[in-house]
Description:
alpha/beta
Amino acid sequence: xxxxxxxxxxxxxxxxxxLLAGCxxxxxxxxxxxxxxxxxxxxxxxxxxxxxxxxxxxxTYTADDLRKAGVNELNSVPILMYHRIYNxxxxxxxxxxxxxxxxxxxxxxxAFENDLRSFYEQGYRxxxxxxxxxxxxxxxxxxxxxxxxxxxxxxxxxxxGWNADGSPKxxxxxxxDVLEKIKKEFPDYNVTAxxxxxxxxxxxxxxxxxxxxxxxxxxxxxxxxxxxxxxxIGGKSPDEIEKExxxxxxxxxxxxxxxxxxxxxxxxxxxxSSASKPEYEKIFKGSYEGFSYxxxxxxxxxxxxxxxxxxxxxxxxxxxxxxxxxxxxVYWDIEMNFKQLNDGRRYIxxxxxxxxxxxxxxxxxxxxxxxxxxxxxxxxxK
Length: 382
């Protein structure tokens, strides 16, 4: 990928007006433009009729830069779903690749580390799930967002003890041990993940789990809700749902008050569709023993990439994930999903979280772009 870095320019008041008059159109239509594109962050778009009110002037990339990098923020984002990470070599498992079980929900530490290295080399950079849900995608120009999630807590954060400075000692090969290793090796990877927990938390001692959860949120990781007893919510009564969801939120709030994410990874991906069904409203709002909660997003169990949060088919109550497993490139394994993503379907960032940039042809009918989150919309011709 040919990525051209543009050095920010300092503009004087005397030239600002003339630049604004001529450069925005060039970003959309001029295929040969070589001058920096200057855009004002106040714009009303035909697709959304939403207006932002900021008045600062920013330097962005030229239309030619956008084309060369393939910038498209309406394309898809991989949200990986992991479960248990075992300190094993791939050669030590009898299953395909790095799978530790026949269905591939659990993974060897060797395969997990290789996953992370491969994603980095392919031009992906991590971001927080919570920011994705809020439409705040802050990834460097020309790179693609990558989101990691872990369900159940087992073998994800395994403690061996605590250092004299209060930092945790992790068991070799557990998920957080690998993540911290990669974080040190690749500072620009923005290593982060969201751990979705049940009442057993990380299955260390209660005291250690409470302490390490605080350490995690202090060190760039997030904690979310996976229901108190890992129940299949689909088919449950409103009272049962409220207890399972609310009780887990209450537990998290006792450990890290106000610092967990109000997102649920639905056990077994059930129900697949919940927003339109009144019996499932307690997933999103309720109370347990006087503790009130709200949920802004729910994750499904598996299979493929997520839509961009800006497009029509994105549904925050049914966010899709990729099961992180090996199956020889078929049935929506890692290889199959990333092959499709890298074949023109991946979200590629313009480097500015306050803009949504894409080829004009991708919204030619005016109905694919839906949610702007108040961001400025910029299009260019391929």
